[in-house]
Amino acid sequence: xxxxxxxHPLISHKLTVLRDERTDSPTFRRLADELVTLLAYEATRxxxxxxxTVQTPVAEARGVRLSTPQPLVVPILRAGLGMxxxxxxxxxxxxxxxxGMVRNEETLxxxxxxxxxxxxxxxxQCYVLDPMLATGGTLSAAIEFLVQRGADHITAVTxxxxxxxxxxxxxxxxxxxxxxxxxxxxxxxRLNDKGYIVPGLGDAGDRLYGVVG
Length: 213
Ligand SMILES: O=P(O)(O)OC[C@H]1O[C@H](OP(=O)(O)OP(=O)(O)O)[C@H](O)[C@@H]1O
Ligand SMILES: O=c1cc[nH]c(=O)[nH]1
Ligand SMILES: [Mg+2]
Fold this sequence. Notes:
Layout: E1 2-5, H1 9-19, H2 25-43, E2 49-55, E3 60-66, E4 72-77, H3 84-90, E5 95-96, E6 98-103, E7 110-116, E8 125-129, E9 132-133, H4 137-148, E10 153-161, H5 163-172, E11 180-187, E12 190-191, E13 197-198, H6 204-209
Parallel strand pairs: 1-11, 4-5, 4-6, 4-8, 8-10, 9-10, 10-11
Antiparallel strand pairs: 2-3, 6-7, 12-13
This protein binds 1-O-pyrophosphono-5-O-phosphono-alpha-D-ribofuranose, uracil (URA) and magnesium ion (MG).
The site of uracil (URA) has 9 residues, from helix 6.
């Protein structure tokens, strides 16, 4: 997996405010949205385009346009939903599919509780959105699912990642056979004994949408 850690003072600034436990939910949602738009610029560096020619008022100009089929953006519910609008701002014509996944906080195993994706993802570039890559169980399972459906190019966009999670995804996907890139705003130190990213930002879903039982 190719890992790109964003290195930009605006991203670092916004990430620092996001981490702060005093940051309230509306501000957290706005910052997550802004961060994703900044990350989307890097994440779409490999987006597929076709050559086209347009007529300007002066002459013909050669350019490009997004290839068909359009990329598929896949937010992983719940927390990934907080990244969707930020991504759509740069990729407004992308289709959107949904994966609902939750991590058991005792076993740290991820399960899928909802799926709304095209049946056939052949030749599709997929952008997976999830703010947190912790143990990596969720992201691994999501990518395996998309590749089984035919996706041939995967970019995961996260706000934070832990080294243990990156290592797990790399091991799980060693034979996946499609290019996988991770673009993240921050690479943190480690996981704690509850599987939370340290220093992290806490529970991203709860900070975006509130605590559910
Ligand atoms: O790398 P992992 O160890 O699998 O953990 C990361 C996952 O945990 C969080 O989701 P959570 O299960 O809390 O669901 P939520 O988005 O509904 O809050 C987060 O948004 C990731 O999906
Ligand atoms: O630190 C973490 C780990 C998993 N999920 C979160 O929301 N935060
Ligand atoms: Mg959560």
